[in-house]
Specification:
Distance between the termini: 18 Å
Largest sheet: 5 strands, mixed
Oligomer: single chain
Mean pLDDT: 91
Length: about 400
C-alpha cells in the first residue's frame, strides 16, 4: 500500500483504486436499518458539557462505544456553546459510526442535546457520509478511522463536505501530519482528494482506504530530534488569483527565516505554491499548511485558512507562528495532534509514551473519556529533559480484532 507521501497535494479527479478491491459488500447510507445483534447492558453515562464540552466528546465517546461494544448515553451535548446541541456535522459523524458498527442511534436529530447509542458489530466495505454543508470531512474521518481499524476487512470511506474549514484540520494537514503520526501505531492507509470544498458552500470529497489490524502497537515518542527540513503547500482556488498563494508563501517563509530560533538556522524551507484546477476546486478559497520534519521522524505542523477580512500576509504568518510554536515547545507532536493520539494510546497493546508541549484542554478531555470507557490509565509528568514539555504515558488495553 502506498502511504500519503506518494499522493499529490493538489486535488485529483482520477480514482485511487477500483472499488472492486474492497472486500466487503456493504454500501451504507445514514438512516438505513440494520439487522446485526446489538450490544447489551446498561448505558455508560457521558456528560457532554464537561471540560472541552464540544464535538470532541461526541466523536471520541461514540467511537469507543463502537469499538468496545459499550452502549452509551450522552447528555448536555455542547451545552456550553452559543448554539447547543447537535449540528449537521455532528449528526453526519454519528450516523457514519452507527453504520460502521451496525448500531442503533436514538436522539440523532438536529439540535438534540441527548443521544443514546447501542453498537452492533463492526463492518467492512464501502461507507459514505455527506454533511451537505461545509462541515469538515476531517472531523468525520476522526470519528470513523479508529472503527475501521478493527473491522473484519478493508474499509473505504467516501466523505463529503468541507475539506478546508475553520476550527478543523485542513485536508492536507490531516493527510500529511495527522495520518503519518497515528500510523505509527501500526496500520496502513491510502487516500484520494477528489475535490476541495470551502466555507460556505462545501462540496469537497475525499476517499479513504484503510486496512484493519489485529492490534495497535504502542508508541515511544520521546526524542523530538532536530528539525531537518520545513516544507508545505499554499494554494488559491476559484476566483482567487495565484498571487494570493504567492503572498501566503512569501509571508510564511519570511517569518520562519527571520525567527530567532537557533534550532532552525540553516534549515531549508520549501513551500509549493499553486492555483487549484477549477474542476477539483470550483469554489473560492485559500490556505497554507506547513510541516517540520525532524531527525527522529517527528512531524510537526502549522496551518491557516484565508478569510475575507484577513490579508494573505497575516494568514501566512499565522501558519508560520503555529509551526514555530510547535518547534520551540520541544514536543514530538504539535498541539493539534496531541489529543488525537490519546484514543490510539488507550487501545494499543502495551505502554505508550509521548513527549509533547503544554497539555491542552482537548487532550485532558480525551484522557477523561478514554479512562471512562476503557481500562486504560494515563499519567502526565514534567519532562525531565525539557521544562517546556510534558510526558504522557498510557498503559493501553490491547484491544484485539477477533475478525483477523
Amino acid at each position: 500500500m502506498k502511504t500519503c507521501k506518494s499522493v499529490m497535494k493538489k486535488a485529483v479527479t482520477t480514482s485511487a483504486r477500483d472499488n472492486s478491491e474492497i472486500s466487503g459488500d456493504n454500501i451504507m447510507e445514514g438512516g438505513k436499518e440494520n439487522n446485526t445483534k446489538l450490544a447489551t447492558g446498561e448505558f455508560v453515562e457521558i456528560d457532554g458539557s464537561v471540560m472541552e464540552g464540544g464535538g470532541q466528546i461526541l466523536r471520541m465517546a461514540v467511537g469507543l462505544s463502537a469499538l468496545l461494544a459499550k452502549p452509551i448515553r450522552i447528555c448536555n451535548i455542547r451545552a456550553g456553546r452559543a448554539s447547543p446541541g447537535l449540528k449537521a456535522q455532528h449528526l453526519t459523524g454519528l450516523t457514519l459510526v452507527r453504520d460502521l458498527a451496525g448500531g442503533r442511534l436514538d436522539g440523532g436529530e438536529f439540535g438534540s442535546v441527548e443521544i443514546t447509542f447501542r453498537p452492533g458489530q463492526l463492518r467492512c466495505g464501502q461507507f459514505s457520509a455527506d454533511t451537505r454543508t461545509a462541515g469538515a470531512v476531517c472531523l468525520l474521518a476522526q470519528v470513523a478511522v479508529p472503527c475501521t481499524l478493527f473491522a473484519p476487512s478493508l474499509v473505504s470511506l467516501n466523505l463529503r463536505g468541507g475539506t478546508n474549514a475553520q476550527m478543523a484540520p485542513q485536508i492536507d494537514e490531516y493527510t500529511e501530519i495527522f495520518l503519518p503520526n497515528i500510523s505509527k501505531f501500526g496500520f496502513e492507509f491510502e487516500f484520494e482528494v477528489v475535490r476541495k470544498g470551502f466555507f460556505p458552500k462545501g462540496g469537497g470529497e475525499v476517499n479513504f482506504f484503510l486496512k484493519p489490524v489485529k492490534q495497535l502497537k504502542p508508541i515511544t515518542m520521546t526524542d523530538p530530534g532536530v528539525v531537518e527540513s520545513i516544507y508545505g503547500w499554499s494554494f488559491a482556488a476559484g476566483n482567487l488569483p495565484l498571487r494570493v498563494a504567492d503572498q501566503l508563501t512569501s509571508a510564511a517563509k519570511q517569518h520562519i527565516l527571520t525567527a530567532d530560533i537557533p534550532a532552525l538556522r540553516g534549515v531549508p524551507v520549501n513551500i509549493e505554491t499553486y492555483k487549484e484546477d477549477s474542476g477539483s476546486a470550483p469554489h473560492s478559497g485559500s490556505g497554507i499548511v506547513l510541516v517540520a520534519k525532524t531527525s527522529t521522524g517527528c512531524i510537526l505542523g502549522g496551518s491557516a485558512l484565508g478569510a475575507p477580512r484577513i490579508s494573505p500576509e497575516e494568514t501566512g504568518m499565522k501558519a508560520a507562528e503555529e509551526l514555530l510554536e510547535a518547534v520551540e515547545c520541544g514536543g514530538c507532536v504539535d498541539k493539534y495532534i496531541q489529543d488525537q493520539m490519546i484514543i490510539f494510546m488507550a487501545l494499543a497493546a502495551g505502554s505508550s509514551t509521548l513527549v509533547t508541549g503544554p497539555v491542552t484542554l482537548h487532550t485532558e478531555t480525551a484522557i477523561h473519556i478514554a479512562e471512562k470507557l476503557t481500562k486504560a490509565r494515563f499519567k502526565i509528568d514534567n519532562c525531565p529533559e525539557n521544562n517546556r514539555a510534558w510526558v504522557i504515558t498510557c498503559q493501553g488495553v490491547g484491544l484485539v480484532n477477533h475478525h483477523l
